Amino acid sequence: MAKKITKKLKLVIPAGKATPAPPVGPALGQAGINIGDFTKKFNDATKAMGSDLVPVVITAYDDRTYDFVLKTPPASNLILKAMGKEKGSGKPNSVKIGTLSKADARKIAEKKLPDLNAIDLDAATRIIEGTARSMGVDVK
């Protein structure tokens, strides 16, 4: 018989930098997850990802065990990293922060493809281009 799921958590944590401090610790504690065990496993699994933000989906079961699934970094973070910028534009339609090449958008789409709701790489690339435009980035 399958274990009963008690809670599902979705957190975004910097790769290799999970700590028991807020916001990670309290969220895990409320779900009945061993905080130290999770932070060690998460940090070991993500230490090769550099400084990316990593979304993680944690499933807690009634016997106090858990599973976690790592997702790809958010598209906006990958776009900003590719451009070397800190943040997007506050007024994306009038103030542009730079230009992203179609080749860079395609590379980001290849990385994000497993987590995107897209049939093929072309559709995924269009999703990434739309995200870039909403951040004040021109795609050429």
3D architecture notes:
The protein is an alpha+beta fold and 140 residues long. It folds into 2 domains: 5-70, Ribosomal protein L11/L12, N-terminal domain (Ribosomal protein L11, N-terminal domain, 2-Layer Sandwich); 75-139, Arc Repressor Mutant, subunit A (Orthogonal Bundle), CATH 1.10.10. 38% of the residues lie in helices and 21% in strands. The protein has 5 helices and 5 strands; from the N terminus they run βααββαβααβ. It has helices spanning 24-30, 35-46, 75-83, 102-112, 121-134; strands at residues 5-14, 53-61, 66-70, 98-100, 137-139. A 3-stranded antiparallel β-sheet has the order 1-2-3, covered by helices on one side. A hairpin with a 4-residue loop joins strand 2 (53-61) and strand 3 (66-70). Helix 3 (75-83) runs antiparallel to helix 4 and helix 4 (102-112) packs across helix 5 (121-134). The model has no long low-confidence stretch (mean pLDDT 87).
At a glance:
The chain is an alpha+beta fold and 140 residues long. The protein has helices at residues 24-30, 35-46, 75-83, 102-112, 121-134; strands at 5-14, 53-61, 66-70, 98-100, 137-139.
N-to-C terminal Cα separation, in Å?
Answer: 53 Å
Which structural class do the helices and strands define?
alpha+beta
Give me the CATH superfamily of the largest domain. Ribosomal protein L11/L12, N-terminal domain
Helical content (DSSP H or I, runs of 4+) = 25-40%
